[in-house]
Amino acid sequence: MNRGAYKQYNQVQIKTANRGKLIVMLYQGAVRFMKKAILHLEQKDMEGKGNALIRAQDIILELTYALDQESLDRGDELALNLQRLYLYSYRRLVHANVHMEVEPIQEVIGLMENLLEAWEQILKSDGGESAGAAPVSSGLVVTG
């Protein structure tokens, strides 16, 4: 599949995915960009590293914005913990970018992979129908 066709296919997938699947796709994208950043860092490609980390940071911000504001306002522990984890992850990636360190990236990859696995289990258990019960806003926007 050529790059243009793949991008078009990916956009159709995003537009037709339910909320739970979108969250999974965001986690997958963040992990993919962080792994690319590590490769670029190892190859001394600072521009590539920076671009990949910025993409991962953007995705983590998107996950943060996708949290249900009402759940946060109510003090829902899950929503608050996710918000803290996302903001911590974002700061770790900024640190990795500035200090050109692999360890913080690997740490955030581990965190995101754990969350990805949890969401995949949710989707597997009921086809993602309960994703609406998670503290996630329905206004999730995925940008390319």
What features would you describe in this structure?
This protein has 6 helices and no strands. The chain is globular. The protein has a single domain, classed as Four Helix Bundle (Hemerythrin (Met), subunit A), CATH 1.20.120. The C terminus is likely disordered. It is mainly α.
Gist?
The protein has 144 residues and is mainly α.
Tally of DSSP β-strands = 0
What is the typical, i.e. mean, pLDDT? 84
CATH homologous superfamily? Flagellar protein FliS
Name of the level-1 CATH class: Mainly Alpha
What fraction of residues sit in β-strands?
under 5%
User: What is the CATH architecture term?
Assistant: Up-down Bundle
Shape category: globular
This entry's quaternary arrangement is: single chain
Tell me the span between the first and last alpha carbons.
18 Å
Main attributes of the structure:
about 140 residues; Four Helix Bundle (Hemerythrin (Met), subunit A); about 0% strand; disordered C terminus; globular; mainly alpha
What order do the helices and strands come in, and which of them pair?
Blueprint lengths: L2 H14 L2 H24 L3 H21 L2 H6 L2 H23 L3 H24 L18
Helix pairs in contact: 2-3, 2-6, 3-5, 5-6
